[in-house]
Automatic annotation (TrEMBL):
GO molecular function annotation: DNA binding
Identification of the protein by name: Helix-turn-helix transcriptional regulator
Keyword match Transmembrane helix: no
Protein's UniProt keywords contain Transcription regulation: yes
A Pfam cross-reference name: Peptidase_S24
SUPFAM superfamilies according to UniProt: LexA/Signal peptidase (SSF51306)
Coiled-coil positions: none
Organism listed in the record: Haemophilus haemolyticus
PANTHER family named among the record's database cross-references: FELS-1 PROPHAGE TRANSCRIPTIONAL REGULATOR, PTHR40661
Domain Peptidase S24/S26A/S26B/S26C: 16-87
């Protein structure tokens, strides 16, 4: 398991605020359904839903107005690494 502090990221109609914490299962790397994953491509790291397309990969935030989907071509997606699946989000209540 990986435990990290976040800096403002939006997914699934939830705004992650500074100081929020996420738990990522490093063993869950297979893209399944509508789950949220921590993915990396070079120096870029995202927490997004991942949709496999015939022409590449789409990285999707639920807050599409502020964070439009990122589309990676097949060539770009070859370097995409799934670090793990988001399994828990902890919010700071102070």
């Amino acid at each position: 398991m990986l435990h990290r502090k976040l800096h403002r990221i939006n997914v699934y109609c939830v705004v992650f605020e500074d100081g929020d914490q996420m738990l990522v299962d490093l063993k869950r790397k297979e893209i399944k359904g509508d789950k949220i994953y921590l993915v990396q491509n070079g120096a870029s790291v995202w927490v997004k839903r991942v949709k496999i397309r015939w022409d590449g990969v789409e990285l999707i935030s639920d807050n599409r107005e502020e964070y439009p989907p990122i589309i990676l071509s097949k060539d770009e997606a070859e370097n995409l690494q799934v670090i793990g699946q988001l399994v828990h989000l902890g919010k700071n209540m102070i």
